[in-house]
Write a structure and sequence with these properties.
By secondary structure, the chain is mostly helical. It is built from eight helices and no strands. Helix 1 crosses helix 6, helix 4 packs across helix 7 and helix 5 crosses helix 6.
């Protein structure tokens, strides 16, 4: 469905699974898909967003901390320790929003152009999500201007 294992679309999905695993999450959410797209700094999706992976990861951690504070938990970051073992996250363990975004991206591409246009279509699908979806909250927290980002994706030379 996503082309070869080395296609940019498949790479983004595997990167999203890895981002979920690193965060200790058992499912791939829309926020993980966005982080996965940002793993390739010179890609059209990274350039369109104008945000790097480290910044997006910090913003997601900020949102997590704010959510915990909202329910009365003020947890300091844990001290650095030896590497933790995280559960494996299957690329098929998709949250509903992530599945919807992927389905939309696949439907808007053809087999012929999926490798080249898949990541951009996936980002366009993610940009259409609204709060309380995690990716919408992350995009808002990062100050991403959605119309400008859409223009950068659909007209990269402008």
């Amino acid at each position: 469905m996503f082309g070869s294992e080395k296609s940019p679309f498949a790479v983004a999905i595997k990167a999203a699974a890895d981002e979920a695993r690193q965060r200790g999450d058992r499912r791939i959410g829309t926020e993980h898909l966005l982080l996965g797209l940002l793993r390739t700094p010179d890609s059209i999706t990274s350039r369109a967003l104008g945000v790097d992976l480290a910044t997006a990861r910090r913003a997601l951690a900020d949102l997590d901390a704010a959510a915990l504070r909202a329910i009365g938990l003020d947890i300091d970051p844990p001290p650095p320790t030896r590497a933790r073992r995280h559960p494996t996250v299957s690329p098929t363990a998709l949250a509903t929003g992530a599945r919807t975004a992927l389905t939309q991206a696949v439907k808007t591409t053809t087999r012929k152009n999926r490798d080249t246009e898949g990541p951009a279509q996936l980002l366009l699908a993610l940009l259409s999500h609204e709060p309380p979806d995690p990716v919408a909250q992350l995009l808002d927290h990062l100050g991403i201007d959605r119309p400008t980002t859409r223009t950068r994706l659909t007209h990269p030379s402008e």
